[in-house]
Amino acid sequence: MTDEERALREAIHSFVEHHDYVTFAALHREFAGDARDGTEISLPGNRIIWLGLPKPVIDAVLGLLAEGELSAIPGHVSAYRRDGRVLPLPVEKAPPRGAHPEPRWFPVLLRTMAAVRAEAPTEDADV
Predict the structure, then answer these.
(1) Whole-angstrom Cα distance, residue 10 to residue 28?
(2) Does 126 fall in a domain?
């Protein structure tokens, strides 16, 4: 990993840590401005997470997710509206049994794993 890639990962992690529940719209605005690259982050089944981020930003986010530094949780389109960007696709209401025939937007939010762990109930918690 280059120093530039490491710095981008650290900046993204810091941004998510500071803002919590970060949309890809906010991430896009912060790290790519108005760039609209021909890229997509998607899941199997024709489920689109986000479109247009520069590849280095995608690689940094995917690396942080793979390393367990970030977590992606299902989000709501209202968070994206708040952040000023939505995808021009139907929003997925429920995961399909098979693939969607047409692309669907699956909005997610990014959190640090430290934040997720801090909110997780412990086994010793009194019920």
Answers:
(1) 16
(2) no
Side chain identity, residue 33: G
Please give the full DSSP string across 64-81, using - where no structure is assigned.
HHHTTSEEEEE--HHHHH
Distance (Å, rounded) from C-alpha 24 to C-alpha 87? Answer: 10
- d(Cα 108, Cα 106) in Å, to the nearest integer? 6
Domain total of the chain? 1
**How far is Cα 79 from Cα 52, in angstroms, rounded to an integer?**
18
- Domain membership of residue 124 (yes or no) is no
- pLDDT tens, N- to C-terminus, the chain (127 residues): 899 999 999 999 999 999 999 999 999 999 999 989 999 999 999 999 999 999 999 999 999 999 999 999 999 999 999 999 999 999 998 777 888 889 999 999 999 999 999 987 776 555 5
